[in-house]
């Protein structure tokens, strides 16, 4: 996280903590404050200049995020990663992707 984002993160930390409490209330304990922040930066504000956003707009965005938004975002990020088979050797890949023997 860049210094600019870290400073803003700390400035609005009470709003983030409040949202995290809401997630915990609905039993989404696996989502972290950093994931919420990364989702906002990379998804909600990706085409905006964050420096020009007003504080109330930033907080409103944070409060509008649902757990399913973050889960979906993380799933898409995972599926777009191109290293699914890095832990497999050539023989294992051949077994997985080769022709089916009946």
Descriptive overview:
With 102 residues, this protein is an all-alpha fold. Helix content is 65%, strand content 0%. The protein contains 6 helices and no strands. It is elongated. The protein starts with a helix and ends in a 5-residue tail after the last helix. The mean pLDDT is 87.
State the gist of this model.
Helix content is 65%, strand content 0%.
Q: Which keywords apply here?
A:
102 residues; mainly alpha
Topology (elements, then pairings):
Layout lengths: L2 H9 L1 H13 L7 H12 L10 H10 L2 H14 L9 H8 L5
User: Which sequence of SSEs, written as H and E, runs from N to C?
Assistant: HHHHHH
* Shape estimate: elongated
Helical fraction equals 55-70%
Low-confidence stretches at least 5 residues in length (pLDDT < 50)? none
Between the first and last Cα atoms, what is the distance in angstroms? 52 Å
Q: Mean pLDDT, nearest integer? A: 87
**How many β-strand stretches?**
0
Major sheet summary line: none
What class would the helix/strand composition place it in? mainly alpha
Number of discrete helical segments: 6
Radius of gyration: 19 Å
Strand content: under 5%
